[in-house]
Design a protein that fits this description.
The protein is of the alpha/beta class and about 325 residues long. It contains 11 helices and 16 strands. Helix 4 links the parallel strand 9 (about 145-150) and strand 10. Helix 3 crosses helix 4 (about 155-165). The radius of gyration is 20 Å and the shape is globular. The relative contact order is 0.16.
Length: about 325
């Protein structure tokens, strides 16, 4: 069986992404074959594509960390999912979600909440797991605590705002002024336009800071923390953080570099929040799979409000027809 996927044969700019025909994966005993309906786009995707992140191996690669779709086949050891189930969760390069099918461990998937469609569900996994695990496992938020969220209108940020509010926190966000109304609708209590004001000068007594930006935001964020507070760096790439860690240690503060872990249990908690209407991903742009390069160009601007999602079915059908015509 064959399928279409977005692949790259070299590291580089968005132009290295191309549609290819390849073999459909076969699930291992603990895996599920998902027919993908939509794939979320994350900054990690273009960092892997460009070679900034090389832990996923060398090209050829199929990118994509987030998927939603339906279960096609289950491995012989899988008991919690069955064919026909609507699911959402994670995949990883070199066999990622920018494809018609992906075979992934069943522990990376959850049943999709019925309140969402596939586009909305595909926008959640990586960003929501990062925010959820950071604010419930790394620094468990309790009612009344003060949380500062940088890039609050971004993929991780806008979900972190909702999760922190759901846990009873007072939430301050940094974002451009044109995104403040959006964030207020999500529940943010206070907002700072970082182009006009230095958050490190005006924010104090924070219990937790969530930072997807890094660079100089790390040491400046330490100035905003209350004694014993926690700075969680979720950027994943960037300059060495040892200086920030040393500065935090000197001040009796906690600094954590954090990356999410695929987790069915955490996805189920996220699905519950989504089903209740407490958590919803904002999808700014929806593009067909064939326009993955354009999606990367948009993501790399750093100005996306919420998420970008690629839809698979319609694009794949058209490409299959074109492929068939070429073979005739």
């Amino acid at each position: 069986m064959r399928m279409l996927a977005v692949s790259q044969r070299a590291f580089g700019g968005p132009q290295v992404l191309e549609i290819v025909e390849t073999g459909r994966p076969e699930p291992r005993p603990n895996e599920v074959l998902v027919r993908i309906k939509a794939a979320g786009v994350n900054p990690a995707d273009w960092k892997i594509r460009s070679g900034q992140l090389r832990h996923r191996g060398e090209p050829p690669l199929t990118l994509g960390l987030d998927l939603s779709g339906t279960v096609e086949v289950v491995g012989e050891a899988v008991t919690r999912l069955r064919p026909g189930d609507a699911v959402f969760g994670n995949a990883f390069p070199p066999n990622g979600a920018y494809a018609e099918y992906a075979a992934v461990p069943d522990t990376w998937l959850s049943l999709m909440p019925s309140a969402l469609d596939h586009v909305q569900a595909a926008a959640l996994p990586t960003a929501a797991l990062t925010a959820w695990q950071a604010l419930t496992h790394v620094a468990p938020i309790i009612a009344g605590q003060r949380v500062l969220i940088h890039a609050a209108a971004g993929g991780i940020g806008h979900l972190a705002v909702q999760i922190a509010k759901a846990r009873g926190a007072y939430v301050i966000g940094t974002a451009r002024a044109d995104k403040h109304a959006f964030l207020r609708r999500l529940g943010a209590d206070e907002l700072i336009d970082y182009t006009q004001d230095d958050f490190a000068e005006v924010v104090r007594d924070m219990d937790v800071v969530l930072d997807p930006i890094a660079d100089d935001y790390g040491p400046r964020s330490l100035d905003t923390l209350a004694p014993g507070g926690t700075l969680i760096d979720v950027r994943g790439t960037g300059p060495d953080r040892s200086a920030v860690r040393e500065l935090a240690d000197e001040r009796g503060l906690r600094f954590v570099e954090f990356g999410f872990t695929p987790s069915a249990a955490d996805l189920e908690a996220i699905a519950d929040l989504a089903q209740r209407g407490t958590l919803r991903a904002t999808v700014e742009t929806v593009l067909p799979l064939a326009q993955a390069a354009k999606a990367h160009e948009l993501s790399e601007t750093g100005r996306v409000k919420g998420k970008i999602v690629l839809v698979v079915d319609e694009a794949a059908e058209g490409l299959h027809r074109a492929s068939d015509l070429q073979r005739r």
